[in-house]
Design brief:
The protein contains 13 helices and six strands. The chain has about 350 residues and is α/β, with parallel strands linked by helices.
Length: about 350
């Protein structure tokens, strides 16, 4: 591992093989309405913030990538003072440090890391439609900028999200699937990163029900903001998160991953030791306060991927509508549209 990390070759033939694999994967993804809904929702919510760009790249950016680009990226970001090494297993601290020093002790430090990103943009009501005329269903994503992973309200918001759309029995899924029959599934989640995050609720429905599904989703968010949790919902959400944490720390690999998360996001070395205590101490009032402080149902970014001519006019009720044909979509462009040749 140390030799690979410290002395990568970046052989041209290996890079080309990886490029072709990436391009094949992107070709499949760009034909998927579900993938496009997720990728374009991030751009619709965060605009041109660094977290909005697709991590897998785009067909054009991957095709244009040169070996010198990869080398420059490595030299800029890969260094011991910008990295973490986590060792978990049947090994003492002294043994772990000795092995780390043996194999990584000669790795040269670089200049200071490029820490810091701009804050997420303020939420704005807007509608982005990606037109795929052959689709008979619409993929829907509704959201707003979220919170960074180290935000003091993170646990309270996780409890709130569990109630709203984090499980099969959540309010969102029960309303859209069980009660209205508009979909086979609906969920919501927080995707927190080090400096910002995304809150997103997503579902899919028949083309003719697109506006109805979005209206119900938005109305549910409004209702949730006013009435975030009953006693029963609150207790069930906390119990689920408590149990999930225990399952997620059963293996040495998962423990290492948790430790790395705490380090990368600046949560503190004792974060996971105190996580369940913090979860237990979080009150229903704190959840309600966090949800009301954070959720902005009047300023949501709505993304819909499907047969645009069948529903785009009706979506004007949720904000200014912009329609981009899927064939013209460029997620690496600030305007998300391919340049005219």
């Amino acid at each position: 591992m140390a030799d690979i990390v410290e002395n990568p070759v970046f052989a041209p033939e290996e890079l080309e093989r990886q490029r072709q694999q990436a391009l094949s994967g992107l070709q499949v993804q760009y034909a998927s309405a579900q993938y496009l809904a997720s990728a374009t929702a991030a751009r619709n919510i965060l605009g041109t913030h660094p977290y909005a760009w697709p991590g897998d790249g785009t067909p054009d950016t991957v095709a244009a990538l040169q070996r010198e680009d990869v080398v420059a990226f490595y030299e800029r970001f890969y260094a011991p003072n910008r990295a973490w090494l986590v060792i978990a297993g049947d090994v003492s601290a002294d043994e772990g440090f000795a092995q780390a020093e043996k194999w990584f002790g000669g790795w040269k430090k670089q200049g200071p890391a490029d820490d810091g990103l701009p804050p997420a943009p303020e939420p704005e009501p807007r509608v982005l439609v990606i037109d795929m005329p052959t689709e008979n269903q619409t993929q829907i994503a509704v959201g707003q900028p979220g919170v960074p992973r180290n935000h003091p309200d993170y646990i309270a918001l996780q409890i709130g999200n569990q109630i709203f759309g984090g499980s099969f029995n959540s309010r969102l899924n029960m309303k859209l699937r069980a009660n209205e029959g508009l979909t086979y599934g609906a969920n919501s989640y927080f995707e927190p990163s080090r400096f910002a995050g995304i809150f997103e609720a997503s579902t899919f429905t028949r083309t003719e029900k697109t506006a109805d599904a979005i209206r119900m989703l938005v109305d549910l968010l409004k209702e949730f903001r006013e009435n975030p949790a009953t006693d029963e919902e609150f207790a069930e959400a906390k119990a689920f998160l408590y149990g999930s944490f225990a399952i997620a720390t059963e293996t040495t690999g998962s423990v290492a991953s948790r430790v790395l998360t705490a380090e990368v996001h600046g949560l503190g070395s004792d974060y996971w030791q105190r996580y369940r205590e913090r979860l237990e101490k979080t009150t229903r009032a704190e959840v309600e306060t966090a949800v009301r402080r954070f959720l902005r149902p009047d300023r949501l970014a709505v993304t819909a991927v499907g047969n645009a001519k069948e529903f785009s006019k009706a979506l004007e009720a949720f904000g200014p509508v912009r329609v981009i044909p899927a064939a013209e979509l460029d997620l690496a462009s600030p305007e998300m549209v391919k340049r005219k040749q």
